[in-house]
Each structure stands twice: as structure tokens, then as C-alpha cells.
């Protein structure tokens, strides 16, 4: 994965977002490699991702992974 940060677009009380974060930890990512962004903090983010969260974005490549995803999907996304 290199040094690219993974952005986790999330929202308040989002249980699926917690599931997605747990998958990231299972894949071996550390807290310092994950940047959680609350989509309700910005109108643009809310419009873009509000109904789709959780969404992962690789800051380096710009690639996005939309829920639902499994551990295997995450492995492909991170390589």
C-alpha cells in the first residue's frame, strides 16, 4: 500500500462505518494510516457520500471503495 493514507468517510452513529474500520484493522492498517472524515462536516461531502457511507478512498491513487465490501475486496483495494 505504500505510505498512502486511507480516508474512511463516515457519519455519526454509523454502525457500518465501524464495521468498515474494523476490516481495515484486520487488514493490518494502523490508526495512523486511517483518516476518518465525517461527511456531515461539509455540505459537499454530504452530497457526494452521504447516502453511500462508509466509503474508503486511497489518498495516493484516488481510488474509492464503496460499501458493501468484504475483507477480500479490501485486500485488492489496498494493493
Describe this structure as you would to a colleague.
With about 80 residues, the chain is an alpha+beta fold. The protein has helices at about 15-25, 45-50, 70-79; strands at about 5-10, 35-40, 55-60, 65. The termini are close together.
Structural class: alpha+beta
The CATH topology is: Glutaredoxin
The total beta strand count reads 4
- The CATH architecture would be 3-Layer(aba) Sandwich
Q: Specify the biggest β-sheet.
A: 4 strands, mixed
Report strand order across the widest sheet.
2-1-3-4
Spans with pLDDT under 50 lasting ≥5 residues? Answer: none
| First-last Cα distance | 5 Å
Task: Report the average pLDDT across residues.
Answer: 94
Looking at CATH, the homologous superfamily is Glutaredoxin
List keywords for this structure.
single chain; 79 residues; alpha+beta; Glutaredoxin; four-stranded mixed sheet; 3 helices; globular
